[in-house]
Amino acid sequence: MLLKIGSLLLVLLIKIYCIYHFYRNKDRFSGVIGIITALMIGISSAAIGFLLMLATNYQVLITTLVCLVYTMGNGLLVRRLFPPEKGMNDILSGLIGALIGSVLGYSTFISNKPFLVIDIAFIVITYIALMYFDRQLASKSTENRSKKKNQKQASNVSTISLSAILIVIIVVLGLNVNQIKVGVIGQPQTQTASIDEENDMQVATIRVTASGFNPKNTTFQAHKMIKVNFEASIPKGSQIRLKSEDLKLNMNLKNGKNILLMDNPIEGKYQLTIEPTNATGTFTIKK
């Protein structure tokens, strides 16, 4: 939990610092402030959407509402701090970033690694962007008046372009929503059950979160008793259910150990499902 909260706070603090940096040097950045703030808000919104989706265990509604508030707030902040910027490009870039980040987060398996990867990537990308703009501005001692005259026209073009990109992304996601699978990126794939010779049974531990099974598949031997410990990690107030039509299985999982015993398993491949996310896993029973 500390890693999740810390990752979100890190992104927010870096974004706040960047906006403060732009505000203190707004005279130097006046020609490109709209581009810089839109880029910064887009990147930070993508990171926030990704991290929130994992931190809330794929709560799409909560993530969507928070991202909407975040992007709208950023747009209003830019409009207030950097007149005559309207903040529309910042809102659009924020929505695009949040949408992409949320979808990627929904498709990523929950573990500590994604939080660390996103934090590091956000720091590196932000540093490169700031360094690039600082160098570009340092090489120009004066602003070209013709650029100022064309600034409004360029802003309108970028607003139309960002709007078109947002619409295309929404349409593509809407048409492919059933193809988006929860927690498939980075999900451990397979393990083989160990043998408990003293009790003459096969033993396996499978960690379960809302994103699915860790690992996704477990291999057993046929006709030898199976003991599976489903080690569940469930947020407070949430409930997940383990179901399998193949095994005639339907059970609520509690935090911690959940033991399943199977006597004389028959060769085959059996599908397991976690509800309500519909994440899937399998038992493979071989000769």
Automatic annotation (TrEMBL):
The chain crosses the membrane at residues 6-23, 30-52, 58-78, 90-109, 115-133, 154-175. The keyword Membrane applies. Keywords: Membrane, Transmembrane, Transmembrane helix. This is EfeO-type cupredoxin-like domain-containing protein. It comes from Neobacillus rhizophilus. The lineage of its organism: Bacteria, Bacillati, Bacillota, Bacilli, Bacillales.
